[in-house]
Specification:
globular; four-stranded antiparallel sheet; Arc Repressor Mutant, subunit A; alpha+beta; 9 helices; Alpha-Beta Plaits; 3 domains; 45% helix
């Protein structure tokens, strides 16, 4: 399992009790609106919307909020904004590559927030294409370990298009081509295996190993970016080892 995955898992655990809960809810709601606007409000025929709704439910977003977001996005209810999907590229200190995905109704505000978050924390914007080639677009399904062995899960997902499965400590991370993600998720559901999330993500092809100081600086940049209202996802090619994570945790 890569250091990036371990760091992402650690961040996920902390998020459950994080004060940023309301901001997280808002970003999940925005994803639902966009998915409904793009593919319609019927989850049976819109797998992107289905996964966005499932992720929101598993993050404890209230059902009423979810239903209203679907209606706004599909046009069944007034009040939906017109969001534009944007991707920016940048660097954190130490040469760590960053891919920053935004959903915004104001492009000028989004780029200003991203640039400010980077420069104030030792990072910098990068030219389009200078970072993106370091990442591959993949489907990632997270499965908890409870009740299922690695072999059981692997047997279910291999025929559905899974390329690899990583042990993340508390669960398994199943990686596939982006186009096979829905098939992998569906195979798990058909086998009665619960999953925590199913997303199309950008995974690094080349990673940059970081010591504790470098990891601390990188996390500071990512935290600042994630605080931006328009930023939905931040991907890095940082490799943070278990030992470095332990050192960071003990210093907190």
């Amino acid at each position: 399992m890569s250091g990036h995955s371990k760091w992402a898992t650690t961040k996920h655990k902390k998020a459950a009790i994080d004060a940023k809960r309301a901001k997280s809810f808002a970003k999940l709601i925005k994803n639902i609106e966009v998915a409904a606007r793009t593919g319609g409000g019927d989850m049976a025929g819109n797998p992107t919307l289905y996964d966005a709704v499932q992720k929101a439910k598993k993050t404890s977003v209230p059902n009423d909020n979810i239903e209203r977001a679907v209606k706004r996005g599909s046009g069944a209810e007034a009040g939906g904004a017109s969001y534009e999907a944007l991707t920016y590229e940048g660097y954190a200190p130490g040469g760590v590559a960053l891919l920053i995905e935004c959903l915004t109704d104001n492009k000028n505000r989004a780029v200003m927030e991203v640039r400010t978050s980077l420069t104030r924390n030792g990072g910098q914007m990068a030219d389009s294409g200078s970072v993106a080639y370091l990442f591959n677009r993949k489907g990632v399904v997270a499965v908890p370990k409870e009740g299922h062995t690695e072999d059981e899960v692997l047997e279910v997902v291999l025929d559905a298009g899974a390329e690899e499965m990583k042990d993340t400590g508390d669960g398994f991370e199943i990686v596939s081509e982006a186009g096979d993600m829905v098939a992998v998720r569906t195979a798990l559901q058909d086998a009665g295996i619960d999953y925590d999330s199913a997303d199309v993500s950008f995974l690094p092809s080349v990673e940059v190993p970081l010591d504790a100081d470098g990891a601390r600086k990188m996390i500071r940049v990512v935290d600042a970016l994630e605080d931006c209202d328009d930023v939905q996802n931040v991907y890095t090619n940082a490799d943070v080892s278990d030992e470095v994570l332990t050192e960071l945790d003990s210093a907190d």
